[in-house]
Structure formats: structure tokens, C-alpha cells
Design a protein that fits this description.
It is built from 13 helices and 16 strands. It is α+β, with helices and mostly antiparallel strands. About 40% of the residues lie in helices and about 20% in strands.
Length: about 425
């Protein structure tokens, strides 16, 4: 969530930054904020006068005035009127604050100073390409869903039967390969210093609001109708909310977590896109990396986060590229983001397999996660970062295509063979 004080003190600057992301109007917020501050000033003045009157009543009685005398009674009457007025102002001020928050919550994060300007994904900037030597030369590579069905490891028909479209059942070696990918990713991230978390898959509305999915993206998530619980779209939600409403110490930072979870997304607005295969499912597995860090280190931590995601692709010897997202393609919570895209030879294109975002203090403000540093006065909001390390289904899709052999078999990446106990599918 954006800082209301920043909006108040630098409205033109913040409006210009938001305009880089789309059409947003800060004027209604500024108008409500002005009313709220006027009301707060009036309430403070009335409260001060009320306190003064109460003190005067006590002093009059102490000095010998008749408690039922006209002078004391006049002061008491004034005090009662002040309290009545205060009781009217307090809910009015509370309502104004709620209206301001309701307007702040749908606003996206401000782009960082170094985020490229652009209106759509076509203006994203490629900053790196790796693994061209691993691009397969086989001209007859089948799409991953075709080879998967041929090998009997992906069953889309039965997945649809027991659920609906965009679900899949993994069979035999397919289930084993999924588990192998997950365990390999977790092991690598733990070796890199991340602490594994296994948190709830069902979270309350406050948790989704804290990380930015609510209220703007309610239609993207699955909700349990009888409860205030939602299926997580990413383990970033449950992992970040472990620290909601907490004050950490500077010595606790940085905090690194990794988590494997199933993820659930409606993919609203994506109908007709990637209807076949593992690319865009309603339920998919993912290993997520989350960092909670000191604001001074978040830029460096972002680069390290990207490197940690890259390390998985490099170990698997999967060709990929990195895009720096422009302002028009940034995710809602991100101030700066890099997408890692893996090569899918059947379609001759790169497809997203990880988004590594620095959200700065955007989520921390919504989740009220702060830290206390030494003898410094007050507290500061932490900075948060997140990135897939990686999306498991898309990793499997990339393996099934990039490691496909001429005879129709699929070689298992060397680093996964110890987990699988075999060399080929």
C-alpha cells in the first residue's frame, strides 16, 4: 500500500509515477485526506479543551467551590457538550479513514526509478540469454503434452473428468518426476541459505489483502464459500503473512524462506490461452522464494534472488532468457521485476517460468511488518522480495521438450537422475 504521507507531501510526483503504470487519480484521496486531517485537528482541539475543563472542575472543587454551584455546573455542562461532540466526531473520522484505505488498496506499487518505461510486454527489455548450446536440434520435437500422453505420464482427459478443464493427473513416472523436481529445487535453495516453510494452503482475507491479491484480484482466486478462507495463488501469501503485525529486530534480517505448495488460480481472463498442456493450469505446484530484508539491501537482494532462480535452470541445463519488465507490464505489487523465460522448442519461443520481484515496503505496509534498528527512534517497514524457484509444471514441460530424444524417449536431466533412479522416461 502506498504511504498516505508521501501522497500528501508529493502528490504531483506520485501521480506521475502512477501514470507510468496506467490511469490512476489521486485527487479523491487527497480530498478525503484533507477532510480527515481537518476533523482530526478539530477533535484534538476539542479533546484538549475537554481535558482542560475536567482539570478546572477538579481545581474549583479543591479550592472550596460548591460542587453544585453555578460555576462548577457550567463547567460540567461544557464538558458534557464537548464529550458529546467528540463522540460524534470519532466515528466520522474512523469512516473517513476507512474510505481513504479503500481508495489506497487498489493502487499498485510505484515503479522503481530504474524500471524501464513502457506500456506493454512488447517493451520489456531482454537483459540476458543463457544456454543456447543446450537448445535441441531435433526438428521433430513434440509438444510436452503430446509426448507426456504418449509416455503415459500426463493424463489430461482424466484430470478434466474428476475436476474440469485446466486440471491434469500425473501418472507413474510423471508423478515421480514432479516430486524429483520439487525435492531438487528445495535442496538447492536450502543449501543457498533459505529456511523451508510449510504453511497453510487456506488463508483468510486479511492475508490476501496483505500481499495485494485483495481487493483488486478477488476474481483470480478460489474462495471457500462457507468460510473466510481462500486457496493460495502462491505460497508468497502464507509465507509473508507469518510475520504480519510483527515488529522484528534489525538483527533478524534478512529472512530467507523457500516453500513448496500447490497453487490455485482461476486464470480469469485467460480463457482460450494455453488451453492444452501444463502452462496455465488452475492447480499447479511451485517452489517459491521469499525474502524479508533491510531497505538498504533490497536492491542487492533482488539480484541475488534472480541468481538463485537462474541456478536451478542452469543446473537443469535448460536454455532461458531474462527480461526486465517495463512499467506497463509490472505485477500489481512489484516496484521492479525480472521474468525468467525458459525455451520451449515445440513452439520455438520462451515462456515465463519465474517472476522475481522487489516489492519494497508495499506489502509490509499492508501487512504491518516493521523492524526496530538499534537505538534509532521508532520503527521502519521491511522490504519484501519474492520469486518462483521455479514453477514446477512449467519446468516439467521444458524438460519433456528440451530432453526429448529422436526415438521418442525423454532423457532425465543429470541432476534429477539420483532422485528418479533412472536415466530415461
Amino acid at each position: 500500500m502506498l504511504d498516505i504521507r508521501q501522497i500528501r507531501e508529493n502528490p504531483q510526483t506520485l501521480q506521475e509515477l502512477l501514470n507510468r503504470r496506467g490511469e490512476y487519480d489521486l485527487q479523491p484521496i487527497l480530498e478525503l485526506d484533507e477532510k480527515q486531517r481537518q476533523l482530526e485537528t478539530e477533535r484534538s482541539q476539542l479533546q484538549a479543551r475537554s481535558n482542560q475543563v475536567g482539570k478546572q472542575v477538579g481545581e474549583k472543587i479543591k479550592s472550596g467551590s460548591n460542587p453544585k454551584g453555578a460555576e462548577v455546573q457550567a463547567l460540567k455542562e461544557e464538558g458534557n457538550q464537548l464529550k458529546a461532540k467528540l463522540s460524534e466526531l470519532e466515528p466520522e473520522e474512523k469512516e473517513l479513514k476507512a474510505k481513504i484505505e479503500a481508495l489506497l488498496l487498489p493502487l499498485p506499487n510505484l515503479p522503481s526509478e530504474s524500471t524501464p518505461l513502457g506500456k506493454s510486454e512488447v517493451e520489456n527489455i531482454e537483459v540476458k540469454r543463457w544456454g543456447d548450446e543446450y537448445i535441441p536440434q531435433n526438428p521433430k520435437i513434440m509438444p510436452h503434452y503430446e509426448i507426456g500422453e504418449k509416455l503415459g505420464i500426463l493424463d489430461f482427459e482424466r484430470g478434466v473428468k474428476i475436476s474440469q478443464s485446466r486440471f491434469v493427473a500425473l501418472m507413474g513416472a510423471g508423478a515421480a518426476l514432479e516430486r524429483a523436481i520439487i525435492q531438487f529445487m528445495l535442496n538447492r535453495h536450502i543449501q543457498a541459505g533459505y529456511v523451508e516453510v510449510m504453511a497453510p494452503l487456506l488463508v483468510n482475507s486479511q492475508s490476501l489483502t496483505a500481499t495485494g491479491q485483495l481487493p483488486k484480484f478477488a476474481e483470480e482466486s478460489f474462495k471457500c464459500a462457507a468460510d473466510d478462507l481462500w486457496l493460495i495463488p502462491t505460497s508468497e501469501v502464507s509465507t509473508m503473512n507469518l510475520y504480519r503485525d510483527e515488529i522484528l529486530t534489525a538483527e533478524q534480517l534478512p529472512i530467507y524462506h523457500c516453500a513448496f505448495t500447490p497453487c490455485f488460480r482461476r486464470e480469469a481472463g485467460a480463457y482460450g490461452k494455453d488451453t492444452r498442456g501444463l502452462i496455465r493450469l488452475h492447480q499447479f505446484n511451485k517452489v517459491e522464494m521469499v525474502k524479508i530484508v533491510h531497505p538498504d539491501t533490497s536492491e542487492d537482494e533482488h539480484q541475488k534472488l534472480v541468481a538463485d532462480a537462474e541456478a536451478i535452470l542452469q543446473a537443469l541445463k535448460l536454455p532461458y532468457r531474462i527480461l526486465e519488465l517495463c512499467t506497463g507490464d509490472l505485477g500489481f505489487s512489484a516496484a521492479k521485476c525480472y521474468d525468467l523465460e525458459v525455451w520451449l522448442p515445440s513452439s520455438g519461443t520462451y515462456r515465463e517460468i519465474s517472476s522475481c520481484s522487489n516489492v519494497r515496503d508495499f506489502q509490509a505496509r499492508r501487512a504491518n511488518i516493521r523492524f526496530k534498528e538499534g537505538k534509532k527512534k521508532g520503527t521502519q517497514y521491511v522490504h519484501a522480495l519474492n520469486g518462483s524457484g521455479l514453477a514446477v509444471g512449467r519446468t516439467m514441460a521444458a524438460i519433456l521438450e528440451n530432453y526429448q530424444q529422436v526415438d521418442g524417449s525423454v532423457k532425465i536431466p543429470e541432476v534429477l537422475q539420483p532422485y528418479m533412479g533412472r536415466e530415461f522416461l
